[in-house]
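Example record

The entry below shows one chain as it appears in the dataset: sequence first, then structure tokens.
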Amino acid sequence: MADSPILARVHSGTTRAWFTGGALLLASVVVGASLQPGFVPGSGILRTALLSAALLVFAVGLRGGAGSVTARRPLGTIALAGLAVWLLLGEVLQDTLTTALSDGSATTGLLVFAYADAAVQFLLAIIAVVQIGRARVVPAPWNWVPAWAVGAVTASWLLSQLFAGGTSIDPMLVTVVLLSLDGLLRMGSAALLGVLALVLADRAGRPPRD
């Protein structure tokens, strides 16, 4: 009984962290679906900022680390926080990079970033989801759902790279279909993880059974 106030505070911190992270994820999906990033100025940065904020909350937790899905272990926490920062950096540099590549004025740093972007995202994401699964802060089997989501998005991206230009069907049509599928999978994965975080936050906030 002496430990119950401590356990209550831990559960409360976990509930707040997972609820906050889940809400931020769902907000990023709503912004991405409703404001059409690329057409509405600033919507892309807003969407990515919400996503990055969610990843940071999941990585470090709130108030002393409660709710960190990596148990604040260095490798997983750094990978997840690094992914959040890298995604936001990529969104901020997107317009500059596009312009520089089109007119040939890209610096060495921008070229390195452009070529390394996908690989760095993949590496950080894989490390993060494996560490989330191994940490078991998130109840099983839900601790491996982020890994499933990353696997689905990665498979979609690989398909878009492999088949967009190597088919007898109209390459433009194939590109549009594959990019649409990739976008739907990314949004669907974020929505799934956001809903899961809210559900698990509700469970974590329930008083333990005797």
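Notes for this example: The two ends are 11 Å apart (CA to CA). The chain has a mean pLDDT of 82.
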